[in-house]
Amino acid sequence: MIAAPVRNKTSNLGSTNTFPQPPNPMKTLHACLFASILIFAGCKDREHQPFTKETPISVTTTRVGKVETSRLCEVPGTVVPRDKALVSSRATGIVSVADFSLGERVKKGQIIVTISAPEMTSRVGQAQGAFDKAWRDHQRESSLLEKGASTSQTVREMEERLRIAEASLAEAKTLESYTRVDAPFDGRITKKIVNAGDYAANGTPLFEIEGYGGLRVEASVPESFPEVEIGLKMKILADGETSEGVLSEYSPSADSLSRTRATKVDVSGPTHLRSGQFVRLMWPVGHFDEILVPKSAVSTFGQMQRVYVSEKGRAILRIVRTGEIRGDSVQILSGLEGGETILANPPAGILNGQALEGR
Q: Is 214:81 a contact under the CB 8 Å cutoff?
């Protein structure tokens, strides 16, 4: 008996071999790594998951109070030096020396301009000669009076002539000194008006000088503004910066045309202001109550500014409008009332209606 051959069933069907294949090691490794990442990410999410609204959190609160503040109004003003002089000639003649430049630093008593006036020099010589003669005559008559060769009347006349001659000499020397123009105080030349060779008459401006004695603000305050006391501290605004000043002069009467009062405020302490600068003087016109809160209590979200108010153990979001910054505090213009309690430094991630621990 002949046995029939055994056939592979799958070969007739044209299909692939159905014997099990060994696993791919790279695919197994990738699957393990992916599973580990998912487990790790899940653990991290549970570790840093933000607190919920019902999770009580511990915060620091502060009570909002009202502070009485002066209501200020801007008054335009100009910065000028406290020591300033326009020096003019008191002699008539030709400017012989004007060896100075704009911005030059000068000392008090330093000769700045010299004027040539020969007639004044001659007048000094004449007065000196008259004085010398009067002095010799007085000495001679006094000596003769001691010997009995002159009279007391003659000696008194010589004394009068001597005093007149002395006064004339002093006058001539004073007029002659006007030909040498010096600096009235320590400062800097801010304007040069004459040069050598110019003609100078009595009253002709020669130069302008500003001293180092500090700056002041001159302003015209409307008469409708309330009066203030001399010595009041004021703020001065210029180029986005603030300086301090003290009211030094204040006219008690108003100008009949401008209806304003002349005012001078001395600038105190270090300042960025300069002579001739336009500034705004902050003049007190009344008082009002303002609300100040710590800067850390205010947070910004987009274009909105917000704080959190503590109400019935919950942190309630409140939109506010802020004003000026005062040191570590900020002015609240709207959104809060005096007496409310706010979170001084709300933590990141806090929710509206968040439960507060112990509040």
A: yes
The rounded distance, in Å, linking the Cα atoms of 127 and 120 is: 11
- As a whole number of angstroms, the distance between CA 100 and CA 104 comes to 7
CATH number at residue 128: 1.10.287
Q: Is residue 172 situated within a structural domain? A: yes
Whether residues 225 and 282 share a domain: the answer is yes
In a domain, 4, yes or no: no
335: domain CATH number is 2.40.420.20
Which domain, by its residues, includes 140? 118-178
Any idea what DSSP says for residue 131? H
Indicate the pTM of the whole model.
0.56
- Residue 359 to residue 350: CA distance in whole angstroms: 15
Alpha helices, DSSP H, located in 77-151: 118-147
Backbone dihedral region for residue 46 (phi beyond 0: left; psi -120 to 50: alpha; all else: beta): alpha
| Residue 23 maps to a domain | no
How many structural domains comprise the chain? 4
Alpha-carbon span 258 to 264, nearest angstrom: 17
Cα–Cα dist 136/118, whole Å:
28
* Whether residue 174 sits in one domain with residue 145: yes
If asked whether residues 252 and 330 sit together in one domain, one would say no
pLDDT band, residue 30 (cuts 50/70/90): very low
What are the helix (H) ranges across the chain?
A: 9-13, 25-48, 118-147, 152-177
Contact 238, 277 (CB under 8 A): yes
Find out whether 317 and 352 touch, Cβ atoms under 8 Å: yes
Closest of 45, 57, 48 to residue 353, by C-alpha: 57
Q: How many whole angstroms separate alpha carbon 47 and alpha carbon 57?
A: 17
Return d(Cα 195, Cα 97) in angstroms, integer. 8
Instruction: Judge if 206 and 217 occupy the same domain.
Output: no
For 177-213, the pLDDT digits (tens) are 999 999 999 999 999 999 999 999 999 999 999 998 8
Length of the chain, please? Answer: 359
**Residue type at 330?**
V
Neighbours of 342 (CB within 10 A): 24
DSSP letter for 19, please: S
pLDDT of res. 285: 87
263 plus 167 within the same structural domain: no
